[in-house]
Structure formats: structure tokens, C-alpha cells
Design goal:
Strand order of the largest sheet: 8-5-2-1-12-11-10-9
Helix content: 25-40%
Number of strands: 12
Distance between the termini: 1 Å
Radius of gyration: 23 Å
Oligomer: single chain
């Protein structure tokens, strides 16, 4: 499990350049056939990929400067940073400033000479992606002109999308809109090249989308009719989960809730477009908080916590029937973590989507957790994807070190470990399980501690920053991967097809 932002790069953030191709070569050399990433959208609040400014756009911050040189849009000298970026983490403020200046320079050069016949491809991209790209370019140009303030804070004519005012804005900001379209064109060109290279190496990519979109997003601004908002486009209810054994006050996420009745009336066209677009850029799609399709926790927007709320029925199987009717078979992974009701289990069975198992959850101290035993390998359903941990967990090394003496002993007994390499023993445990996919964060392969944690849920700073360096790898890790992949038949066949008997995923 590895998000592109965590790749090495001298440009301050992992990107779609040479180091990504080197990572794909690493996967191929070890016969690994799946690579999982986080959402690819442009990040908004707190740099979280799960709070994107758009459900369709790509993140311009991971555009590769070196690939811009290959396209003759800038020179090697022009893309050289004027500062030295840190190697082990992303300094988002500095990266954003550098990347926007670089992209603006590349756009100016593109307008002046349009190298390598890119203009024709650019025009075609604008045409085929117009269903989301036009609104996105308008939204971003207004947002930048308003110091990145949320759209709900804009003046009423822009906030409420007064048609004549929006048309006037488009005419007076034509070049800014074109620049936003250009950055998306370059992002998707670079991403598609990377994805095609992965396919040549027999590797499929698992993508990720949150079930809910961010309030401060073009999706809500452009289509308020699909969300539970009042006449002023303010939130009436927000998403979250109620109190449970994890939190006495629940989790108030703050995302707008869908108006499923409105979406049903037009045949769920927005969802069809979203899933189709996602599956055009990745191979398998993980949907976060899948249980929200069966029923979701509706919290009054005025509430500061998630204690007060109601379970409201979601669209259920009807949505997925419409998706399948429009798109055919759906290669979807359902994130079914937490407390799962019989109704959610029934929805999973009807869709036949594989669910998730997280090994760390199997060894919790809290014996009152009713879902605990489903995470133990001897209880796995073959139609599942098992992880040592996810982007929201501690690394497995840090988690084991922080566990109680009782839990540590249970882990050692269950894995028959001598304690010398507990992380390796836990990786071997999921490799050898009957789950059809086994997933490890790269941090676990490298035996890293909390310094490499990707995200701490409920916090809004110092997340999503971790980056790896190649000197953290060792020959021992390489030998471990080769042996386990062959031993448990979780390897690709080197011919661009997936091994039918087992899949291995490194994220």
C-alpha cells in the first residue's frame, strides 16, 4: 500500500515521474501483482485525499516536473527547485507554491509553442471530460481569486451560481479556466502513462474513493440539488458515525449527506459518472464506508458531536443494480469495517463485493468489541481482502510495541512467533490466509514505526506527509517477498494476467 505522494522525489512530494516507474519495476521484480493507492483528487482541507475539491479531478501536486521536461513544456533548468525539500516527508506549503509556479510556466510555454502536437490532444481531452471539467475549472478559478476560501463564503451571485454572473466570470477569466483544464490534461496524461506501464508489468491498480464528498467541493457547488442543503446552500445534516466502543461521542465528519430521492429520480446519473470515471483510471475500486449505502448516520448540522442523530435508509441494492446495468461487472472492494449489521451483511452478499479484514483489529484489548473475531484469520471469508493495517492505523511495528503485555502474548501465541520479527510473522499470517487478496502497507514491509504513520483519524495536522527512501530497503525484505509469494502462490505469471489462484497487494 503506497500513495504516490509517498514516493521519493527531489521535488518535495512523490509524483508521477521516474520513481513511480522504479516502484512498479520493484513490484514486478518481486512478482507482486496489485498496488493500492489512496484517492487521487486535488486535496483541500488539511491536505487529506479524503477531503478532495473534486470527485473527478486529479491532484496537480503530483504532476512530475521531469515528465514536463519530456513533453518539452519546460527545460531541466527551469524545473530545478530553488530550495532543498526534505526527503522523508512532504512540506505541503512549499510544494504547493513551487508546483503552481512550475505549472503556470509550463502553461505559458504550451500556449506559445504547443510542443509535440499536444494541442490536438488537449482539445480532445476538454471535449471528452466536459461533464466535470468545465465546472471544475470555473470553481477553481473563483476559489483562487478568493484566497482559497470555501465557496459558501463567496458573494451570493457566485455562491448560488447566478447564470449571468457565471457567464461573465467565464469570459473575463478565460485564460485562468484554460490553465485549470491544462493542469488536468497533464495530470491524466501522466497518470495514464503510468497506469499503462503498470499493466505492461502485470500489475493492476486498486484505487479508493470516500463514499461522501467534501462540502467545499465543486461537486456540491455545481450540483446542490443532490445534497441535503437549505435554500442558502448551507448544511442541514452532516455525515458521521454514532458513539461506539471506539468513541464515546462518535465521529462527526461534517460531510454533506446525499439527497438519495433526488439522485434516484435521474437514475443515479452522478454515481454512474463517478464510478465509470474512477474505473477508467484504475482497475479495482475500494469504496470507503460502504455501510452508508445501506443506512447512514444523519447528524443535525448544528450539533458539535455525533451523539445526536438517526439512522436513515440509503439506496441499498437499487444503486448497484443501476450501476451494473450501466457499466457491467463492478470490480469493487467494500470497506466494511466497524460494527456491521445483518442488513449491511445482506447488502454485501447481494452485491458479491469482497469485504475487508484488518489483522490489527483481531487482537484488540477490548473484549466487548462484537466484530473482533471476524478479523482473526481462521474466521476469514475467502471473498475478502486482508490487511495488516491501513492508512488510518499505526504501523504494525508501532502498534505491537504499544500493545499491552496480554495482547502481545496473544499475538505471539497465535502466530507461533519467537518474538524476533513479529511484523514479519504477522505479514506471513495474512499471506498464508484464505483471503483472495493480502495487503501490506509499505511501512510494514520496511518495519517502520510511528514516524512513518500516514494518518491519525480525528486530527487535522501532520498527516499524509510520510515518504520512503530506497535506502530503507534491504536484501532481506526482497528475499522475504520472493519466498512468501511463491510459497503461498500469490505471484503474477509475468504475462500481463492475474494469477487466478491468489492475488497479492502491496499498498
Amino acid at each position: 500500500m503506497l500513495h504516490p505522494t509517498s514516493l521519493p522525489s527531489k521535488y518535495g512530494i512523490g509524483d508521477l515521474g521516474p520513481e513511480l516507474y522504479r516502484f512498479v519495476d520493484f513490484l514486478y521484480a518481486h512478482k507482486l501483482n496489485l498496488w493500492q493507492i489512496l484517492p487521487l483528487g486535488p486535496t483541500g482541507y488539511a491536505d487529506s485525499p479524503y477531503q478532495s475539491l473534486s470527485a473527478f479531478a486529479g491532484n496537480p501536486m503530483i504532476i512530475s516536473p521531469e515528465k514536463l521536461v519530456d513533453l518539452e513544456l519546460i527545460t531541466t533548468e527551469e524545473c530545478e527547485p530553488t530550495i532543498t525539500f526534505p526527503d522523508s516527508y512532504v512540506s505541503y506549503g512549499e510544494v504547493i507554491k513551487y508546483k503552481w509556479q512550475l505549472l503556470e510556466h509550463a502553461f505559458t510555454n504550451f500556449q506559445e509553442k504547443s510542443p509535440q502536437n499536444l494541442e490536438k490532444d488537449f482539445i480532445s481531452f476538454i471535449d471528452t471530460q466536459s461533464f466535470w471539467l468545465e465546472d471544475y475549472s470555473i470553481f477553481m478559478s473563483i476559489k483562487l481569486a478568493h484566497d482559497l476560501n470555501a465557496w459558501i463564503e463567496w458573494e451570493d451571485d457566485l455562491k448560488l451560481r447566478n447564470r449571468s454572473v457565471i457567464e461573465k466570470w467565464k469570459k473575463s477569466h478565460e485564460n485562468e479556466l484554460l490553465f485549470q483544464k491544462f493542469t488536468q490534461f497533464i495530470f491524466f496524461k501522466q497518470w495514464n502513462d503510468a497506469k499503462n506501464y503498470a499493466h505492461l508489468k502485470s500489475i493492476k491498480i486498486i484505487g479508493d474513493i470516500p463514499i461522501f464528498v467534501a462540502y467545499d467541493s465543486v461537486d456540491v457547488w455545481a450540483h446542490p440539488e443532490y445534497y441535503q442543503l437549505n435554500k442558502e446552500k448551507e448544511l442541514t445534516y452532516v455525515a458521521g458515525v454514532p458513539p461506539d466502543y471506539f468513541s464515546a461521542t462518535g465521529q462527526r465528519w461534517g460531510n454533506p449527506l446525499y439527497d438519495w430521492d433526488a439522485m434516484r429520480k435521474d437514475g443515479y446519473q452522478w454515481w454512474i459518472q463517478r464510478i465509470k470515471h474512477s474505473l477508467n483510471i484504475i482497475d479495482i475500486l475500494r469504496i470507503d464506508h460502504f455501510r452508508g449505502f445501506e443506512s447512514y448516520w444523519q447528524i443535525p448540522a448544528k450539533e458539535d458531536t455525533a451523539i445526536i442523530g438517526d439512522w436513515i435508509p440509503g439506496p441499498g441494492i437499487e444503486l448497484f443494480r443501476e450501476l451494473k446495468k450501466a457499466l457491467g461487472p463492478l470490480p469493487i472492494i467494500a470497506e466494511d469495517l466497524g460494527t456491521i449489521t445483518p442488513e449491511v451483511k445482506n447488502l454485501l452478499q447481494e452485491t458479491k463485493f469482497p469485504g475487508m479484514r484488518v489483522l490489527q483489529f483481531a487482537f484488540e484489548e477490548n473484549d466487548e468489541n462484537p466484530a473482533k473475531n471476524r478479523y482473526l484469520p481462521h474466521n476469514y471469508d475467502p471473498n475478502s481482502i486482508v490487511y495488516t493495517g491501513t492508512h488510518d492505523n499505526q504501523t504494525t511495528k508501532a502498534w505491537f510495541e504499544d500493545s499491552s503485555k496480554k495482547v502481545k502474548q496473544y499475538i505471539l501465541d497465535y502466530t507461533r512467533s519467537n518474538g524476533k520479527d513479529v511484523v514479519g510473522d504477522l505479514i506471513r499470517l495474512i499471506w498464508s490466509s484464505i483471503a483472495k487478496m493480502a495487503v501490506i502497507p509499505l511501512q510494514d514491509l520496511l518495519r517502520l514505526g510511528d514516524e512513518a504513520r500516514m494518518n491519525i483519524p480525528g486530527t487535522t495536522s501532520e498527516n499524509w506527509k510520510w515518504r520512503f527512501m530506497w535506502d530503507q530497503f534491504s536484501d532481506d525484505f526482497s528475499e522475504e517477498l520472493k519466498q512468501m509469494g511463491i510459497l503461498y502462490n500469490r505471484v503474477h505469471n509475468g504475462k500481463g494476467k492475474q494469477n487466478k489462484d491468489g492475488l497479492l497487494l502491496v499498498i
